[in-house]
Amino acid sequence: MFSALRMAFVFALFGVPSAIVGIPISLLRGNIRTMYRWAMFTMRVGIRAAGIRVRILGVENIPPGESCIFLSNHVSNLDPPILLPAIPGMCSVFLKKSLMKIPLIGTAMRLGKYIPVSRGHSRLEAERSVALAGEALRSGNHIFIFPEGTRSPDGNLLPFKKGAFFLAADSNAPVVPTIIQGTAAMMCKGSMQVHPGVATVRFLPPVRPQNFSSREEMMETVRLEMQSALTQE
After folding, report:
1. Each residue of 86-131: pLDDT tens digit?
2. How far apart are CA 224 and CA 98, in angstroms?
3. What is the pLDDT of residue 108?
């Protein structure tokens, strides 16, 4: 419990002032890059305060100078604050549409090219989300997605959602399969307790959409590569 309290304290200590100062600055500048760097710093310090050490492997597999789509497995609520700071550059993420309606914060999220989604969304809304994600990629951001759509209860990969692969095929952006391990034991589903330990993030070789004849073939290849890497680890 003390690890969770230390992490929460750091998030509040650095996060609240960063938001109070960073949001107005971001609105004046028309971008959130400075605020994004502050947020990543806060996540790193908070994770470290919880006694979690992060080991990052395969950074050389990330194509330099290209906007990529990062796809990762998902086993714990600790995954996002560990994975996002590990990715070089700035990431846009998918989030609940309702969050975009929060005054100031919603505006900052739009400046960051975040992509709003809603549960049970229509085909038209899904196409709109893919279009917004494509704009984020063209602006120089990466896209970060959990293709399973939810946390795995046992660490095994769940079936993948197709949205990420529609985006990859439409944008021709390289897909970087990513695996994270160790976090399931550090923060179990349904628990607020955090246990110290080592989390391993591994970036696998990129997958190029143009090398596949269909989205389904690309999705199956990415899933098999991630499953193989998880098994080897």
Report:
1. 999 999 988 877 777 776 667 777 777 888 877 656 677 777 888 8
2. 34
3. 73
Instruction: Give the pLDDT confidence score for residue 192 in this predicted structure.
Output: 82
Kindly report the CATH class assigned to 51-232: alpha beta
The whole-number pLDDT of residue 81 equals: 93
DSSP classification of residue 101:
G
Using CA atoms of 96, 145, 231, 160 in order, give the dihedral in degrees to the nearest 10. Answer: 70
Which own/partner pairs from 1-8 qualify as long-range (CB within 8 Å, at least 24 positions apart)? 1/192, 1/193, 3/49, 3/50, 3/51, 3/52, 3/193, 3/194, 3/195, 3/196, 4/50, 4/187, 4/192, 4/193, 4/194, 6/49, 6/50, 6/51, 7/46, 7/47, 7/49, 7/50, 7/194, 8/46
Helix, strand, coil share (%) of the chain residues, nearest 5: 50, 15, 35
Task: At 74, give phi and psi (nearest 5°).
Answer: -145, 115
How far apart (Å, rounded) are the C-alpha atoms in residues 124 and 18? 36
Report the alpha-carbon distance of residue 209 to residue 69 in Å, rounded: 11
Q: Where are the domains of the chain?
A: 51-232
pLDDT digits (tens, 9 = 90+) for 139-175: 999 999 999 988 998 888 999 999 899 999 999 999 9
